[in-house]
Specification:
By secondary structure, this protein is an alpha/beta fold. The protein has 12 helices and 10 strands. The chain has helices at residues 22-28, 49-62, 77-88, 107-114, 124-127, 130-143, 162-178, 193-205, 220-237, 264-277, 286-298, 323-326, and strands spanning 18-20, 32-36, 67-73, 92-98, 118-122, 148-150, 184-189, 210-215, 249-251, 307-311. Helix 10 (264-277) packs across helix 11 (286-298). It is globular, with a radius of gyration of 19 Å. Bound molecules: pyridoxal-5'-phosphate (PLP). Residues 47-48, 77-78, 154, 156, 188-195, 282, 285-286, 313-315 line the site of pyridoxal-5'-phosphate. Pyridoxal-5'-phosphate (PLP) is lined by residues 47-48, 77-78, 154, 156, 188-195, 282, 285-286, 313-315.
Length: 331
């Protein structure tokens, strides 16, 4: 049903473990929750983006590129992963970041600099014309004799989609080994490619497994449109005649005040999981999504399920810039 997987570079530490959160599930009194530990895909490459970048970097090299160009927020995990992939491949890296250049460098941004990425900072109003920002940077590097390769926000496009189609394959092997199949796979969704890759993979290989994305920024309608765009790009790029029918199930009720603004309950659940299970979620993506999942279990909506797999998509370096939100009394 799925076409042959394209070439990839082995950048991620795979397969990642699948582990039950037994103590937390017992305290919650609901289904057994499992974590797919994609926070362990690498040390500096931690998280979900490296799975996508395995395919994107292979594509970039096959096209003769020597520079990776991408964009994101100041604390983008995707930008940090791209900066380290570029360093490992001895390519140059340029990041277009949304926000003012801060006085102190922290979290992912500090790591971007250590990895040697060039950075340009842009105000939200300049970001309204992101295409123009990309065009200007590309032109500049072409002028200098580089061959730049452009990666969209979050590496979510038809090429990056393969990262989580193959993660769905890996999960099916995990399920076989662990002797169960979950009714639901839950994931944080930001630029949409992780959710769509999983949804496409399971739709093609094991349609009984449903995938639900918990939005950390945009609305459900946005993700439905974005998924159609990325699917189209995937079909065109790999000349795929027909795709399995995928439903994009996105819950957008737990975004709170907006992207990068975690509710107090999110910070609380991060602390709780750290103490009960020795696992660290992040305030921007995984903490918020996990909070949404737990709320839906508490409300009874998912209470009848036996097994739920939550994909831990990483983000640990994003904890540090929130130090004062976790412990305001110490600030
Ligand atoms: C980018 C990111 C996500 C969201 O993945 P998308 O494919 O962009 O939807 C989730 N968790 C973390 C930690 C991320 O960095």
């Amino acid at each position: 049903m799925l076409p042959a997987t394209p070439e990839r570079l082995p950048l991620a530490q795979l397969p990642t473990p699948l582990e039950p959160l037994d103590e937390f599930s017992r305290l919650l009194g609901g289904p057994r929750i499992w974590l797919k530990r994609d926070d362990l895909t690498g040390n500096l490459l931690t998280g979900n983006k490296v799975r996508k970048l395995e395919f994107i970097a292979a594509d970039a090299l096959s096209k003769g590129a020597d520079l990776l160009l991408t964009c994101g927020g100041l604390q983008s995990n995707h930008c940090r992963a791209t900066a380290f992939v570029a360093a490992r491949l001895r390519m140059k890296c340029h990041l277009i970041l949304r926000g003012r250049r801060p006085d102190t460098f922290d979290g992912n941004l500090l790591l971007d600099r250590l990895a040697g990425a060039s950075i340009s900072y842009h105000s939200p109003s300049e970001w309204q014309h992101l295409d123009r920002l990309f065009d200007a940077v590309v032109e500049d590097y072409l002028h200098q004799g580089f061959s730049p390769y452009t990666i969209p926000t979050g590496a979510s496009n038809g090429v990056g989609l393969w990262g989580y189609i193959s993660a769905a394959q890996e999960l099916l092997q995990d399920f076989e080994r662990c002797g169960f199949a979950p009714e639901l796979v839950a994931v944080a969704t930001g630029s949409g490619g992780t959710h769509l890759g999983l949804a496409l993979g399971f739709a093609a290989m094991a349609p009984v497994v449903k995938v639900r994305g918990y939005a950390v920024c945009d609305s459900r309608g946005y993700f439905e449109r974005k998924a159609l765009d990325d699917l189209k790009h995937w079909q065109e790029t790999y000349r795929i005649a027909s795709t399995p029918a995928v439903t994009i199930d996105v819950v957008d009720r737990y975004i709170g005040q907006g992207y990068g603004l975690p509710q107090p309950e999110v910070l609380h659940i991060i602390e709780q999981l750290a103490r009960t299970e020795g696992v660290l979620l992040d305030p921007v993506y995984t903490g918020k999504a996990f909070y949404g999942l737990v709320e839906q279990i508490r409300s009874g909506e998912l209470a009848k399920l036996d097994n739920i797999v939550f994909v831990h998509t990483g983000g640990v370096f994003g904890v540090f810039p929130y130090r004062d939100s976790f412990y305001p009394s110490l600030a």
